[in-house]
Specification:
The complex is a heterodimer of chains A (about 450) and B (about 160).
Chain A lengths: L11 H22 L9 H24 L7 H23 L3 H23 L9 H13 L7 E4 L2 E7 L2 E3 L1 H26 L3 E2 L2 E2 L7 H17 L2 H19 L2 H21 L1 H11 L4 H5 L6 H13 L22 H34 L3 H25 L17 H22 L13 H5 L4
Antiparallel strand pairs in A: 1-2, 2-3, 4-5
Helix pairs in contact in A: 1-2, 1-3, 2-4, 3-4, 3-13, 4-15, 5-6, 6-8, 6-14, 6-15, 7-8, 7-9, 8-9, 8-14, 9-10, 12-13, 13-14, 13-15, 14-15
Chain B lengths: L2 H27 L15 H6 L16 E6 L6 E3 L5 E4 L6 E2 L10 E6 L2 E6 L6 E3 L2 E2 L4 E3 L5 E3 L2 E6 L1
Parallel strand pairs in B: 3-4
Antiparallel strand pairs in B: 1-2, 1-11, 3-5, 5-6, 6-9, 7-8, 7-10, 10-11
The chains are: A mainly alpha (about 450), B alpha+beta (about 160).
Chain lengths: ~450, ~160
């Protein structure tokens, strides 16, 4: 039945077409926000439009040369999201007189150049498997960096940033990638051990105690972040990433149950012991109580303002540049979803959430299609991290869960998150290229592991 | 800028967003099949209805060979009923069909049933075995009526 086995096509032309549409969304949004400005399309607008177009098409060209079979929809989705984010940040700059838009554009350029570099020099994601334990060390260093005196900076009560030459950077965002590489490498080589050993209790097969080491390590890391860096969002995300990857590796529900128990215990204890966690939970449950709303630290004012803004937007939104999203504190970073919800309405917000959903499904599709266990785990882990990040942010803003300080991928103002997420996209593109490339292409590298070295016949 | 233009632009932008999403989804739709292995088993009823070409027409019921007939050579006219055991052809006395043919070897060829078909295999004969004018190099299935030539003898399978 040869007609059921389609020939893999590069489909780069489809990507080019979708890119044009995505750029139209991003640049069109930027044109809309400055409708009322006196020189309508000023030099800022043109710099941004031309820079974004050139950068994104340079990635397209790199893909044509290096990863011909990469997924054609990932890049347009990310371009549209990044363009929308730039436009909203620019729009808020107009209202508040800040200069975040230029900074965000610089970081976008840096992030896209980094993506092109990863695509050009890495070429095959399987190479990363050699750095399994190195990336564990790197993650540990990155997570500890903000706690180093003199280097770390405390912003809004969280120790997540480092300051280098006046620029702030959030190393935890990069640690997300290196941790995913470590988990993927570790789980793909120790999967069988974790899977087969252990005794059965009821319907659950419990893992052996000594195999739970990594689980406890991940738990300790996330609790450590919660305690020392005072950030609930990253702590939740690192643990969630590990849970997702171990579930994908072993398909054991017992791990998920154990992990949920651990995080419930940790979260409950944290809410009891640490005031900032307790305040967040209080601000979530009793958001509309006047004293909680007006509280100076840990009040619910931000969430409630965001909710009011989205309610003002309604179904169709006020139109870009026509609302007042600038009334919400941190409207261009933490609350950018509320800003977009106000100006694009429920219909526009659904479109954005759908873009994220499509991006995540494409990542998981690439993971399903690729043929090496490491790539599968890495692809699933990175996609899940993106999904979890969206869930935590959007859930927090819509008051489904307590608001925690995670960045909205690609949209929110913040360079480190933008850089990290674009690198995630580069890795997903490489994995999807490996997944869709025709079978006849052999491994790019001859020495991908000890197994190939052992096959030396006399 | 008039109110109307702004409103039109507002709706136009929302429309553009959704146009992007629908184009992405339609680009993906064709993509979803990539990576699926060639499916084993028969296509489902739904697939068969939509793509009638997928359904292989059932192979025509093959007629079983029940007789062996010598059509040419010294033994022309001889017939043999085929059972389920293999048949040795050659000049040797232990052969199932003893060929009185100067050009045949002692143990010349073997006819054996496998599944629903008969196969012919050359046993290293001096002059070779020919199935429909082609010399055998390995065991080949024998169709009904296809001539098997051994020396001057020609054998056919009949229903």
């Amino acid at each position: 039945m040869s007609q059921q086995l389609p020939v893999a096509k590069p489909r780069r032309n489809v990507e080019a077409l979708l890119l044009v549409l995505a750029l139209a969304v991003g640049i069109g949004a930027n044109a809309m926000v400055s409708l009322d400005k006196s020189p309508w399309m000023d030099s800022d607008f043109w710099t941004q439009a031309i820079l974004l177009t050139v950068l994104v098409f340079s990635i397209h060209v790199v893909l044509r040369i290096r990863a011909k079979y990469a997924d054609p929809v990932i890049l347009p989705i990310v371009t549209a999201l990044n363009g929308l984010g730039l436009a909203m940040i620019h729009r808020l700059d107009i209202a508040t007189g800040e200069g975040a838009g230029g900074k965000q554009l610089t970081w976008t350029a840096l992030a896209i150049v980094a993506t092109a570099a990863v695509l050009w020099f890495l070429r095959d994601h399987r190479v990363l498997r050699r750095f399994t334990y190195i990336s564990l060390v790197v993650s540990a260093v990155l997570l500890i960096l903000p706690l180093v005196p003199g280097l770390g900076a405390n912003i809004n009560g969280a120790n997540l940033w480092i300051v280098v030459g006046g620029m702030t950077f959030q190393p935890g965002e990069i640690a997300k990638i290196t941790l995913a590489i470590f988990f993927a490498g570790y789980l793909s080589s120790n999967r069988d051990l974790i899977l087969l050993a252990g005794k059965k209790v009821g319907p659950l097969q419990l893992p052996r105690f000594k195999d739970m080491g990594p689980l406890f390590a991940a738990w300790l890391v996330s609790i450590g972040i919660l305690v020392f860096q005072r950030d609930m969002g990253s702590s939740f995300m690192f643990f969630g990433l590990f849970m997702a990857m171990i579930y994908v590796a072993t398909s054991r529900v017992s791990w998920v149950v154990l992990g949920l128990v651990l995080i419930a215990v940790g979260g409950f204890a944290a809410a009891k012991i640490f005031s900032h966690v307790a305040l967040r939970v209080d601000g979530w449950l009793n958001a509309f109580t006047p004293e909680v709303y007006g509280r100076a630290s840990g009040g619910s004012g931000q969430i409630v303002q965001g909710l009011f803004g989205m309610a003002n937007g309604g179904l169709l939104g006020t139109g870009l540049g026509q609302g007042r999203p600038d009334l919400v504190p941190y409207a261009n970073s933490d609350m950018i979803i509320a800003s977009l919800g106000e100006e694009l309405g429920l219909i526009g917000l659904f479109a954005i959430v759908l873009l994220y959903l499509l991006l995540v499904t494409r990542g998981i599709r690439a993971a399903l299609g690729t043929r090496d266990a490491f790539g599968k785990l890495l692809g699933c882990g990175l996609s899940f991290a993106l999904a979890l990040q969206c869930f935590v942010v959007i859930g927090g803003i819509t008051r489904l869960i307590p608001l925690t300080g995670l960045t909205t991928p690609f949209l929110a103002a913040g360079g480190s998150s933008l850089l990290a997420n674009w690198i995630v996209v580069a890795l997903l593109l490489l994995i999807s290229d490996a997944a869709r490339r025709p079978y006849s292409t052999g491994p790019l590298e001859a020495d991908l592991g000890p197994a190939t070295e052992a096959v030396k016949l006399p | 800028m008039s109110e109307l233009t702004v409103t039109l632009l507002r709706f136009g932008f929302l429309l553009l967003l959704w146009v992007l999403i629908f184009s992405i989804v339609s680009a993906m739709r064709r993509d979803l099949v990539i990576g699926t292995k060639a499916r084993t088993g028969t296509p489902s009823a739904r697939q068969a209805r939509k793509h009638p070409e997928l359904v292989d027409s059932p192979p025509p019921a093959r007629q079983q060979a029940h007789r062996l007939v010598v059509t040419e050579g010294p033994l022309a006219g001889t017939t043999m009923d085929l059972g389920s055991s293999p048949i040795l052809l050659g000049r040797a006395q232990e052969a199932t069909l003893v060929l009185e043919d100067d050009y045949a070897s002692g143990r010349h060829a073997r006819l054996f049933p496998q599944g629903s078909r008969w196969f012919i295999e050359d046993l290293g004969s001096t002059n070779g075995t020919y199935l429909a004018d082609q010399q055998l190099t390995r065991a080949l299935p024998v169709e009904l009526g296809a001539p098997i030539r051994i020396g001057k003898t020609v054998i056919e399978l009949r229903p």
